[in-house]
Amino acid sequence: MRRAVVFDLDGTLIDSAPDIHAAANTVLERRDIAPFTLAEARGFVGHGAAVFVERCLSARGLSEDAALQAQVLEEFLELYEGAVHQTRPYPGVAACLDALVAEGLDLAVCTNKPEGATAAVLAHLGLDRYFDVVVGGDTFAVRKPDPAPLREIIACLGAVGAAYVGDSEVDAETAARAEVPFALYTEGYRQTPVEELPHDARFEAFDDLPAIVRRLLAAG
Ligand SMILES: O=C(O)COP(=O)(O)O
Ligand SMILES: [Mg+2]
């Protein structure tokens, strides 16, 4: 009986906001558009690169300019794949993934980050070897919070039980719609108070996740 743990990426396995922030500001500054703080940029992450750029421009009153939006997105995506310099896994991530693999679980990633940037950062950090399936925001026609990518991953792994681990509003909604138990990592990019986000378990340290996963999979 195969069982799987599917992870969100940005704000869950890795703290990538500093690189996303730097890439965005580089593109905006080329056009004399005022840069954002790290906290502001972090708050725009969650629905993929296109929505991230839309949110940046809309915060500067530039949401009506479709041509500008397309150019900024194109330049942002060019920088995004190499945006790995400041990105780090959260503390305890590798040891946690080792422990889950040792328990015989299949691991996968379901992120809204573009597929190319996802592959690049996972390889850069040596995390790619853990995952049997990796789905990005542009892998399918739909992305989270549509439940289809998560469901597709679980079907593709042939898993009879699964848990989803993520940090955000998007992840909580995805898990609920896919009817998959959800563990919320509380140290990521969520904007909503923890109590207001539906979750089956929550954790602030990756050391605690193997026991949580065991409990969620036993209950499912
Ligand atoms: O890149 C994003 O907007 C979100 O990425 P995530 O789904 O891994 O949190
Ligand atoms: Mg996330």
UniProtKB/TrEMBL annotation:
Specifically catalyzes the dephosphorylation of 2-phosphoglycolate. Is involved in the dissimilation of the intracellular 2-phosphoglycolate formed during the DNA repair of 3'-phosphoglycolate ends, a major class of DNA lesions induced by oxidative stress. Mg(2+) binds at D8, D10, D167. The keyword Hydrolase applies. The keyword Metal-binding applies. Its cofactor is Mg(2+). It catalyses: 2-phosphoglycolate + H2O = glycolate + phosphate. The active site is at D8 (nucleophile). This is Phosphoglycolate phosphatase.
